[in-house]
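User: Hello, can you help with two protein structures?

Assistant: Certainly.
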Amino acid sequence: MSYELERIEELCRERGWSHYRLAREMDTSPNNIGNLFRRTTVPSIPTIRRICEVMGITMAQFYSTDGEQITLNPQQRRMLELYDHLDQTSKLRAEAYMEGLSAKGPADQT
C-alpha cells in the first residue's frame, strides 16, 4: 500500500472515521474511496487536497513524517499556491531567487 493510502487510513483511525464517513465528508461516492484502496493506487493530488480540506489539515501536515504540525500564515500559504502553478523551470528559478534574497544560501542551510 502506498504512503498516501496508509496516511489516509491513519488519519481516519485518529478521527474514528470509516471510508464511508470520509466519502460523505468529501461529498463523493463511497465507491470512489473504496476504489482507491481496492486498486491500491496513489491518490491524485486533487484528491489528497480534498481529503486534507475535510480533515482540516494542510498538505504539509499530511506528508509530515515527524508528526510535527506545520501552520502556515496567509502569506506563506499564498506563496505555496503561486509556487504550485509554476512549471518546473520556473520553480527552480523561484527557488534560486528566494535563496539569493535570503541571508543564507543553500550551502549555509542546516
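That covers the first. Now for the second protein you mentioned:
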Amino acid sequence: MTRALLLLALPIGIAALSAGPSRADNPIGQVPAIREGLIATGIAVEISDKCDDLQPRVLRGLAYLESLRAHARELGYSNDEIDSFVDDKAEKNRLEAEARARLASMGAVEGQGETYCAVGRGEINRDSAIGRLLRKARVAR
C-alpha cells in the first residue's frame, strides 16, 4: 500500500502559504469526514493496485484529498497540525490497517485480484466515494 500512502500523503502534506485558523477540539484523525475520506482513498488505490481492470482517477483523487485538507482548515486545524497528522507513521499504519480490514470485509482476498475487481466494480456501480475514485482500465490499441 506504499502507493496509497503516497497518494494519501502528497496532496494533504502540501503546505499552504497562509496560516490556518485556531485548533479544533478533536484530534484530526477523529474527524469522521477526514478519516473516512482517507480510508476511501486508500481502498480505491489498493483496489487499483490489485486489479488490472480498474485504475485510479488520479486527478479526481488529488482534488478529493485537497478538499479534505481544506475541510480540516475550515474546522480550525493549522497547516502544521495537518502536516503532523499526515507525517505520523502510527496514524498511517492505523489507517492502512482499517482500509485493509474494510476491503477484506467487502470480499477482497489477498492474492486474488478478481476479488478486488469485484469489490471495485461494485463500488463503481453504487457510485460510492470509493467508486468515484476508480474507473475501468483503458485497453491499449
